[in-house]
Amino acid sequence: MKILRIIYVWSALLMLSACENFLDITPEGQVKRKELLSSANGIEDAMYGAYAQLRGQNLYGREMSYSALDVMAQYFNSYGNYKVENLLKYNYTYSSVETLFQNLWTSMYSNISNINSVLQSELVSGATEYPYKIYRGEALGLRAFMHFDLLRLFSEQITLNPEAEGIPYATTFSLVTPEFSKASKIYEFILADLLKAEELLADEAVYANNRDFMTLRQIHFNIHAVRATLARVYLTMGDYEKAEEYARRVIDESGLSLLRKIEISGDVAGCLSRKETIFGIYSTTEFYSNVYNDLWLSTSFYSLDPRKDYATFYETAEGNDYRLGAYFTTQPSGAIRFTKILDKYKVDGNEAKRPENTIQGLNLIRLPEMYYIVAECRNRAGNPEEAAGMLDRVRESRGIEVRTDWEQMTTEMIQEAISAERYKEFIGEGQSFYHMKRLNQTIINQEGERIAPSRNIYVIPIPEIEYEYRN
User: Fold this and answer.
1) Is 208 left (phi over 0), alpha (psi -120 to 50) or beta?
2) Model's pTM, two decimal places?
3) Tens of pLDDT along 64-112?
4) With 0-12 CB in 10 A as exposed, 13-18 as middle and 19+ as buried, what is 403?
5) Within 239-359, where are the H helices?
6) Which of 15, 338, 343, 395 could be bridged to 400 by S-S, CB 3.0 to 4.6 A?
7) Exposure string (b/e) for 232-269, b if CB count within 10 Å is 16 or more?
8) End-to-end CA separation in angstroms for the chain
9) Is the CB of residue 390 less than 8 Å from the CB of residue 368?
10) DSSP 460
11) For the chain, which residues make up each domain, given as ranges?
């Protein structure tokens, strides 16, 4: 862990000095960037800088995890907070909401450009030998991962509209994004990057602990993260056979396992899951500060409050769902707070008691999702019993008894059960809105009103600044 802290201190310094070196594309900056990327250590520093940028507030450190995307999934509210109220109503033209997605868009493309700088460097471009092929594989995988999430937000669901307009797919280090492409073409680019990354990272285990960079692979876009993302992409594209294939490979080959129900409490509370994290971002202070202010404090017009009926999603007649007690806390004042991702050691001032093997940060891909993907694919393939078996493995690990009535359920009912489990599991992780969009679900808001699915609900408008900049 000492090495990890040193690495991220450097990452922070790298990001703070961005305009003077790596992120600077002036002639002087180009020289400094070339110097930075002229050695393995320099390339690693650049990669750590790119990972560090992912934890920023505009990206996964806030808006793309528990905040904007989970508000849009109807998990939270903040009465009197106009930005939150407009997100809940999918009013993407409201000024502060427009600004939110403009910042998300520009931050993501800025980081994609950083990754492209690594990929264009002499040592990494075309690399097939260690360690440079590892850097190339991680960078390609991460580039695809970022573009995929942008596509999921700013384009229509591809299975509903195969001719949907897409986004730019950036492959060069530049402040100018490339031209827009059809969504189908963007998926081709995403798959090409991921499949090449899979090839380059296939034997990464051979080099385990060979360098500091090859330790703690959960905080790198590792081979299992590549395959998990391929499962996500194929599922979104409607290629269920491929989605199941890759999800099963992660389940069978990652070495990860589902938690036991008694291990759920605190498992992702400001840290990467001990058993289930496939890929996450290291963060000691920034993510904690965001979560503490937004989710732990009860500040009028600011803090995010759990929807009033949150408990009903977890309460069943099929056993005690341990997620309910693990994810929510009642403060002495009586306020209910969502604490699933809050670092309890920092809140209590007991950081010295933190287990030594804990990696502080946020989870971006976890193992239960792979079980849900296999379950959905089996269900769509006409094998409801196998689908139920995969779903029950997650349910049992969360304390819920195995159902005995699966054979009486239709394909639609099993899909609803999978969606219900996903909704309970991924609160605070920014995944539910994507799932709802993929299935074109009717949304039931926190007042019990039904919101019909539409392009206006599920497609975020491209920020106007993108078009103004091009003109």
Assistant:
1) beta
2) 0.93
3) 999 999 999 999 999 999 999 999 999 999 999 999 999 999 999 999 9
4) middle
5) 240-253, 286-291, 322-327, 344-347
6) 395
7) bbbbbbebbebbbbbbbbbbeebebebbebebbbbbbb
8) 48
9) no
10) P
11) 2-470
Q: In this structure, what are the phi and psi dihedrals at residue 98, rounded to the nearest 5 degrees? A: -55, -45
CA distances from 454 to 20, 262, 439, 441, 458 (A): 45, 41, 12, 9, 6
d(CA 282, CA 301): 30
* Maximal C-alpha separation, the chain: 69
In order, the DSSP letters of 77-119 are E-TT-HHHHHHHTT-TTSHHHHHHHHHHHHHHHHHHHHHHHHH
Residue 143's H or E segment, with its range, is: helix 132-154
Amino acid present at 356: E
Residue 100 CA from chain centroid, whole number = 17
Beta bridge partners of 400: 319
Q: From the CB of residue 465, how many other CB atoms can be counted at a distance below 10 Å?
A: 14
Looking at residue 134, its amino acid is: I
pLDDT of 204 higher than 80: yes
Residue 328 phi, psi (nearest 5) = -130, 145
Token look-up 């250590």 returns 41
Fold of 2-470: 1.25.40
Residue among 50, 142, 62 nearest 103 (CA): 62
What one-character DSSP code corresponds to residue 328? Answer: E
